Amino acid sequence: MGLSEIAVALVAGVTFSLFFAEKTGVLPAGLVVPGYLALIIDAPLYALSILFISFATYLVVMQVINRFTILYGRRKFSAMLLTGILLKLGFDSFSGLAPMDIEHLQAIGLIIPGLIANTIQRQGLVPTVASTILLTLFTFGVLTCYQLFLA
């Protein structure tokens, strides 16, 4: 996977996310999430693990951390990101599911569960996951066309 494919996936994902949010009012789980998920869609167990870690992040922050401290705004967002990073690092170190060709995307991949968890908290599980999957598939379609015709 080359740098140009990563750029195409991220640009397409951000563009689709912006237009989708403007037209429907439903936020996908962060602007970069559909692009990142489109890059790992060929490893479905790993992609599903991202969603699982995201939901676990949401539960840990809202049901555990929220009992010990007041979370709102940036504090809540920071708690989601940090918890997501820790859970993802732990999962990746034990699972062995991460595809080898995305090692250079590790930094982006670390924040993805926190972004998804934060959006789940803001608008609910179903709208977040449904919009994210839809935009990931659109982005994957653009990436596939790029790989077939332009790469």
Automatic annotation (TrEMBL):
The chain crosses the membrane at residues 45-65, 132-149. Keywords: Membrane, Transmembrane, Transmembrane helix. GO terms for biological process: capsule polysaccharide biosynthetic process. The keyword Membrane applies. The keyword Coiled coil does not apply. One of its GO terms (cellular component) is membrane. This is Poly-gamma-glutamate biosynthesis protein PgsC. The gene is pgsC.
